[in-house]
Amino acid sequence: MLTKLKRHLDERGSMTIEFLGMVPLVFLTIMIAWQLIAGAHAVMLAESAASEAAKVYAITAEASEAQSAAENIVSAGGSHVSFNGAPISGTDQFSAAVTVNIDFVFLPSSFFPEGKPTFSYTADTSGKVIK
């Protein structure tokens, strides 16, 4: 009777099963954290590009130069973020908005023939042209 009870209470291999159950959860948590980090990086890039566009436009009053400066900053950020425009409105008092597209980092490109899904973020700023 005692040996039957020991056979039913034997826990050999249970640690392996628990480990195999936790591995996907750990990987999923790491992937979500990495996407959050990539998103935060893209938001900081967009804010920096909007600030730079406002500085350039405040000095030169040329929208094309300001957009070019914003695009240079975003393009230096990496492949997970892409520039989507920087319209500037106003003449003396102006507002600049830089829009970026942020890729979902861990989605494979082979699943999406038209390109990876993205989400956009727009950073706004305003200023005054220096005369």
UniProtKB/TrEMBL annotation:
Chain ranges passing through the membrane: 21-46
Keywords, sorted A to Z: Membrane, Transmembrane, Transmembrane helix
Superkingdom of source: Bacteria
Protein name from the UniProt record: Pilus assembly protein
Organism the protein comes from: Jeotgalibacillus haloalkalitolerans
Higher taxonomy: Bacteria, Bacillati, Bacillota, Bacilli, Bacillales
